Amino acid sequence: MKKQYIQKIKQCPSEAPLASLPRKKRGRPLVIGDNLDCMVQAYIYKLREAAGVVNVPIVMTAAREIVAHENRAFLSDFGGPFTPTRDWARGVLDRMGFTKRKGTKAAKHKTSDLPEIKQNFVSRFLDFVSNHQIPTEMVVNWDQTGVRMVPSGQWTFEKKGSQQVSIIDLDDEREITVLLAVSMAGEALPGQVIYQGTTNRCHPKYEFPGSWNVTHTASHWSTENTTLEYIETVLGPYFCMKRKDLVCLISTAVC
Predict the structure, then answer these.
(1) d(CA 33, CA 38)
(2) What letter does residue 82 receive in the DSSP assignment?
(3) CA–CA separation, 140 vs 238, rounded Å?
(4) Strand partners, 214
């Protein structure tokens, strides 16, 4: 203790008397060091603040990726002493005061930074299109949505004082999936309609435009096969047509 006192005086010379010596950390030193351990804990705290799930496998994976990014020499895969085991992950959670709990409510999605995220995406997208000189006709965006087969609303006018307000087909939740696409040039592409069924007999008698892709799945949800079908029947022909049109325009401009 005397040596520590003299060393501290030399490090911090001051007229004021030294009242106490700094306490040493108790227990074994951390395998990955204080800095990396704090980074792992900061990630876990941030994940929980966003209402994300924290469990042992997630802590193990997060620790491996953080250490690999900062100093992979710590990992046993590269000759280091550290392997993120389940016991190690439980130890981290225990030091943080975390315990296993069951979720009691659904967390609301935080969208406070949505404008910034959108602007960042749009900027990167426009830069990519500009740098690669992609014609606006060759940039297509599409989205899918569920559409009720029997449109109805939950509100209606009724006489004042009515105890029951009946609306026909209010409990009919049958849906189809509709995919709509538009190019960056503002041209609407033929859509895709997905019905629920296993054969073409589930398709309606209504005749859609011939360029539309009308198909079905067991659940009416979009699948990998329906996406490939849309690419083959709509997107592929559209891009081929636009390439020919653009080549003709270039040739005409050169002539």
Answers:
(1) 9
(2) B
(3) 10
(4) 193
Those residues with Cβ within 8 angstroms of residue 243's Cβ, 6 or more apart along the chain or in another chain = 138
**56-71 vs 86-95: helix crossing angle, rounded to 10:** 90
Length of the chain: 255
- Do the Cβ atoms of 84 and 56 come closer than 8 Å? no
C-alpha–C-alpha distance, residues 128 and 112, integer Å? 26
Global pTM value: 0.53
Per residue in 203-245, pLDDT tens?
Answer: 988 889 889 999 999 999 999 999 999 999 999 999 999 999 8
Amino acid identity at 53: V
Rounded Cα distance, 239 and 255, in Å: 24
CB 189 within 8 A of CB 235: yes
